[in-house]
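Entry type: protein chain
Record version: 2
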Amino acid sequence: MSGAAAAPAGRLKSILGGSAGNLVEWFDWYVYSAFGLYFAPHFFPKGDPTAQLLNTAAVFAVGFVMRPIGAWIMGIYADRKGRKAGLTLSVTLMCAGAFLIAICPSYATIGWGAPALLVFARLMQGLSVGGEYGASAVYLSEMAGKNRRGFFSSFQYVTLIAGQLLALFTLLLLQAVLSEGQLEEWGWRLPFALGGLLAIVVFRIRRGLMETEAFTNAKDKPKSSGWLLFSKHPRQAATVVLLTAGGTLAFYAYTTYMQKFLVNTSGFSRETATWVMTGALALYAALQPLAGALSDRIGRRPLMIGFGIAGVLATVPIFTALETVKNPLAAFALVMTALVIVTGYTAINAVVKAELFPAHIRALGVALPYALANTAFGGTAEYVALWLKNAQMERAFYWYVTAMIAVSLITYWRMRDTQAHSQIAED
């Protein structure tokens, strides 16, 4: 069934189905980080706990590096076989990876087979996440309808953030009901099993989704490929890289790294930093649809320019103020200010990228340039920040984030508003 025949109720059901899948994808992805302390000893030789955690982090990084490869393979698949097919394959890979980690024997049982299976599972999940972004961004944008694309596509980041929060809440719940020994022995397997079960539910939902009208109308167009993307649409691909660079770096700096910053630099306890970030992220998620709806009224470009200007002006002052803040409420206010600023990028970046490309190359055009920029700038944000801090040059990171936002700001300023010049022709 195609989006061409979609009634409003059917269209809304499809959008909710696509969004729910995105939440489960990111829950499965972040559970690995949340429970790393508990499962690391099961997969690596006994010895230095720090070495075990470093090995666990290295496997996480392998999954991150796979995201551009997943974006390339899965983007082409979604362009050739359909958005629905891409979304279904994505959640299948994530489901298989989650179950494999949940049932994998320990190092004590099968030796180096254990970390090998862990790496294989994260490779599948890395491919999945790499493809999920493009497929879900394009599906939501194409299915939403002309006048509400900003609003509905914003739910991609709502569910991305919700996946992080759900992983965190699962950790807090299991810490409350299980002993430390139970968590270390077998409890850490439960969230991976839960993620696999949720992925099965999402698989069934996605199998029943409608295909988008845009894909149906593009079936007789040239087949999607990396060569076609970079030879016929190099400007759009470069635009995606440049508009993503500052936005994704700011997102990871203000979210993933911020929790460690509050502990290592501001001096808060891990528990206080966790609650500050949990509250801030929950409110941040709620802001995404509001900003998306605003973009439907005034255009995408004003929001991105607003993020660029505010990010350039406020990043250094916010991080500098956080260095000495001692009140959790004051820290929350400063973190929330940063998140409000980056909302101008996160709420609409998916629809902006989708609106840049024609339908036959859209999933790949959204996914691959984004994944390259995300790996280069978002994936390295925490490492760069900690390296500079270790080198006694912590404030250089603030200026690095500011400089990359400035690069993206120039891109926002020079590009046309994609809402007014959208390549998505269907209503």
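Comment: The chain has 21 helices and no strands.
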